[in-house]
Amino acid sequence: MKPLYIFTEKEKQQIENIIKTNPYNPYTQYSEFKDYISHIIRNHPLPENLVEVCRIIVDDRIKNGNHVHVLKNCPIDLKLPNLDLNNPVQHKYKSKLTYIGEGFLELISQIQKTPLFSYKSRNNGDYFTDLVSFNKFKGKKTGFTDGDLIYHSDRSYHPVRADYVSLLGLQVTESELIYTTYMDVKELKKYLSKEAISMLEKEIFQTDVDDRSKENNSSWQSSATHAIFLKENLIRYQDTFTRPIDQDNIDAIKAILELKHAMSRSEKLRHMIKKGDLLIFGNQTGIHNREWIDVKNPEEGRKRWLLKTYSLDNEEKVQQYSKWATKQDPYCITDN
Ligand SMILES: [Fe+2]
C-alpha cells in the first residue's frame, strides 16, 4: 500500500545518530533503555517530519478511523546476524549487538503516547520480539512458522490484547513476495446482516490457544467466553480458532458463516513489508493475515525477519490491565 511517509536519507541518519547514543540493552535493561528514549525526546531536536508523521497517524486513527499506516526508509540495524532458526531468541541475544530498530520502535511509541507492553511468557518478557520462521514450529498452528497465516487478531484468546501491532522489516528478500493483509471491522460490517452483527456481539464464543502459547502453558486450551464484535467497532477473532461454545447453536454458526462470507467480499489493504518499512496496524480494529503470494525459494522466504512490538492506544489502558500485570512492571502482562 501507499506509504504515509518516506524518510529522507538525511532524516534517517539523524534519527539513527540520536538512537545510537543509547547505552542500554533493551533485552536486559529495558527500563533504562525506555527512560533514555524519553530523555532523547525531551532534550534532543528530532526531525520535524518524524514528530509530524506520528501526529498524523494518531489523528488519522481518531478522526478518520484509519488504522493502517506505512513508513518507509526507517532506521534499522545495518549489520544483522543470520539467525539460527533452531533457537532464534537466544541467538539474537548473543549476536545482535546494535539496537537501532528497537530504539526506533520505542521512539515512535513514545512520541505517539501509545506505550509498548510485553507478555511475560513470551521471549522472557521482551518488548521487542522477532517474527521469524522457527524450525520447531514448521507446520504448526502459530504465527512463528513459514507460509500463509489465517486472518486473526493477535492473542485473540488472551484477556489483554494489543491495540496496535508494529512490524519493522529488518531482513527481507524482495524477490519473495510475502504480504500482510488487513481488513477493517467497519468494512466487514458492510456485508453483514443486522441479525448476524447482533449474534456476533453476544458472549457465546471462545478461541483456542495457538501452539506457541501452549508451549509455556500446556493446560491452557481456550479463552474465556467472549463476543466476536466488541464495542466501538473492535473485533476479537481468529479464523478457525474462534467458535461458538455451544456447537449446536445454529444461529451462532450461521453468524460465523456470514462473517466468513463478509471476509471474502470486504475491501483489503495489502502491504509487502520490505527492509526499512514500518507497518503499523490496529490489532482489534480489524483482522490481518500473512500470505506467501509468490515465493520461489522457500528457504529465502524463511529468512524474513521482522521486529515486532505491541502497543496500547493510551497510557490509561495500563491501569485497566493492571490485574494481569507483573508486580515489578505494569507494562509486562502475565497469562492469568
Ligand atoms: Fe498477527
From TrEMBL:
Keyword Oxidoreductase appears in the UniProt entry: yes
Source organism of the structure: Xenorhabdus stockiae
SUPFAM superfamilies attached to this UniProt entry: Clavaminate synthase-like (SSF51197)
Keyword GTP-binding: no
Keywords, in A-Z order: Dioxygenase, Oxidoreductase
Molecular function in Gene Ontology: 2-oxoglutarate-dependent dioxygenase activity
InterPro entries named among the record's database cross-references: TauD-like_sf, TauD/TfdA-like
Listed name of the protein: Taurine catabolism dioxygenase TauD, TfdA family protein
Annotated ranges, domain TauD/TfdA-like: 122-310
